Amino acid sequence: MIRFYYHPTPNPAKIALFLEEAGLPYETIPIDTSKGEQHTDSFRAINPNGKVPAIVDTEGLGGKETRVFDSTAILIYLAEKTGRFLGASEDRAELLSWLLFVASGVGPFSGQAVHFQHAAPEKLPYAVNRYRREVERHYKVLDEHLAGREHIVGTDFTIADISAWGWLGRAPRVLANADNPLAPFPNIKRWFDAIEARPAVARARAVGKEHEFKTVSDEESKRALFPSNYPPAA
């Protein structure tokens, strides 16, 4: 059984999609990051970095409970454990390259673009421009790569597709364009629409819907989500 620590944000969404695609039994444990639940001692024992997603595999390595945190690490772990969505062995280097392209580029730059456009107390033109333009550059790299390709790596659906889908699904918010944000990237649009049509996507999007997560942005939320902006407690 997988205990899946979840909040409805892009990185946990990736794990939800993998679990649904693979048909693995799992228990969803909501972590309300706007209430600061990611900073509790009990959760920090699972992820010392205080971020979601994280999992605990009760039947992990050597039959022992195994914790895994960081969405890319979880995807690799689950793919290796199940033998699913790893692609061909000869494409292993390519798979790792694109996974880390998302992990070190698309993800963090998208997150910062969202922060400076929607959460920062001051809309700093330099910061907004910097992160928006870098996101668009990453999208262009992926768009050019996907020309004539059905999947990011090889000929099969892999964890590289799952990882990129998690963030590309937030393109309207990342690019602050709710109408048609992927229009300038037709190959991404084609690829993304094909993934969206997979039955597991609807199930993944339904994960955690029964839980009412906090949506109000107040002082508690800001301190919970951006603790580095505040001095440590005396």
- The helix fraction, in percent, is 40-55%
Shape: globular
Looking at the overall shape, the CATH architecture of the largest domain is Up-down Bundle
Q: H/E order of the elements?
A: EHEHEEHHHHHHHH
Number of helices: 10
Largest sheet, strands/sense/barrel: 4 strands, mixed
In total, how many beta strands? 4
Strand arrangement within the widest β-sheet reads 2-1-3-4
β-strand percent reads: 5-15%
Gyration radius over CA: 18 Å
CATH class of the largest domain: Mainly Alpha
Q: Uncertain runs with pLDDT below 50, 5 residues or more?
A: none
Secondary-structure-based class equals: alpha+beta
Mean pLDDT: 95
Please name the CATH topology of the largest domain.
Glutathione S-transferase Yfyf (Class Pi), Chain A, domain 2
First-residue to last-residue Cα separation? 41 Å
Work out the count of structural domains.
Answer: 2
Domain GST N-terminal: 1-86
Organism: Bosea psychrotolerans
Domain GST C-terminal: 88-217
Protein name: GST-like protein
Short description:
This protein has helices at 10-22, 41-44, 71-82, 92-119, 125-145, 159-168, 171-174, 186-196, 199-206, 219-225, and strands spanning 2-6, 26-30, 54-57, 66-69. It is an alpha+beta fold. The chain has a four-stranded mixed β-sheet with strand order 2-1-3-4, covered by helices on one side.
